[in-house]
Design a protein that fits this description.
By secondary structure, this protein is of the alpha/beta class. 34% of the residues lie in helices and 25% in strands. The protein is built from nine helices and ten strands. The strands form two sheets. A six-stranded mixed beta sheet has the order 6-7-8-3-9-10, sandwiched between helices. A four-stranded antiparallel beta sheet has the order 2-1-4-5, covered by helices on one side.
Length: 256
């Protein structure tokens, strides 16, 4: 088996004459904590779509644990352990928080065929869903419909759903976007306590989050990889300060 949990090889994506992914190659080892950074319009979310299978590349390939999954759809990649969260929530709004998580755990456990079976008879599945509720501090709203909750709480549920699918590789697309600062700590704590063998690719513009959650990073500009290295070395580099952070770089200590 490959040493890499996730690998992209020369991914290219064009829309007419516009190149949004320009021969992007990445390699994440098992247990990686890797951030993908870059200015708005750099192609970060497009790259996440190419990796997760929601966007088809013009050329190049995507590999999971040494297996070429370029032609596999999103559902097939999820079954192989690649799970992505989105910037915009996609939940069953009319169901409760616990019901959403119960359905996700059921899918992961291959119990979708028995969805009509009362939850009381599927205690392990229910226990896993309840554990996720506790992990993300969602107990007070567990039995409320998702449609009744604030956006920040919905984002927490979305990340919990991603974890319910038991990922081996987890793509987090701006996980804290829209979450009030008072609730961000719960989310970050949950991410930090994920099993060490899970490889995480974090798409994020908040450098404080990048520093806390990632060890290594790749800088993407206009669809191309400009630099890669440890988070500390990249954020201290002139290229990141000039191309990505600009004037704001002066407010970010290089040694942090």
């Amino acid at each position: 088996m490959s040493a890499y949990a996730l690998e992209t090889r020369g991914l290219m994506k064009r829309y007419g004459g516009l190149v949004v992914a320009n021969e992007v190659s990445l390699a994440l080892e098992k247990g990686a904590r890797h951030a993908l950074i870059g200015p708005n319009g750099a192609g970060k979310t497009t790259l996440a779509g190419l990796i997760s299978g929601t966007i088809r590349p013009n050329s190049g390939s995507v590999w999971l644990f040494g297996e070429d999954v370029t032609r596999a759809g999103p559902a097939q990649r999820t079954k192989r352990g690649l799970v992505r969260s989105f910037q915009i929530t996609s939940l069953f709004a009319k169901l409760t928080v616990l019901e959403n998580l119960f359905l996700a755990v059921s899918e992961q456990r291959g119990e979708s065929f028995s969805i009509a079976t009362p939850a009381a008879f599927r205690r392990e599945t229910l226990a896993r869903a309840e554990a996720l509720v506790t992990q993300f501090g969602l107990g007070p709203v567990a039995n409320r419909r998702v449609s009744e909750l604030a956006y920040g709480q919905q984002r927490l549920i979305e990340i919990a759903l991603a974890l319910a699918l038991n990922p081996k590789v987890l793509l987090l697309d701006e996980p804290a976007a829209g979450i009030p600062s008072s609730e961000t700590g719960v989310l970050l704590d949950a991410i930090e306590t994920l099993p060490q063998e899970i490889a995480i690719l974090l798409i994020e513009h908040d450098m404080a989050l990048v520093r806390r959650l990632a060890r290594d990073a790749t800088l993407l500009v206009q669809g191309a990889v400009i630099a890669r290295g440890t988070v500390a070395s990249l954020l201290a580099s002139d290229v990141v300060r000039q191309v990505y952070l600009g004037k704001a770089a002066r407010t970010i200590p290089a040694h942090a």
